[in-house]
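User: Run a structure prediction on this.
Assistant: Running it now.
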Amino acid sequence: MAKGFNKGSQMGQSGMMQQLQRMQKQMEEAQAKLAEETVSATAGGGAIKVTMTGDQKCREVVIAPELLKDADAEMLQDLVLSAVNMALDQSRELANQRLAPLSGGLPF
């Protein structure tokens, strides 16, 4: 009786390992796609634009030339910081949307 139990247990473990490997592959594919997807956020009425990838890499920061004419360094820093943080939030949300179905809803 113990042999049959162990044999069934081994088959169950094998199936579980295959399922885990499939899930891991799907997760890796989803993460690779996230690295290619981008989100953008603006601050200062569009004077600052930050583009971030789905894996939270900053790809681009654009500052409108008009803003630099009479730029206040502190204001410029605040606008850039605000746009970066908004882009990061959007990037995290994108990652959650793409990866949550694969992770059983665990946040990223």
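The longest strand covers residues 38-43.
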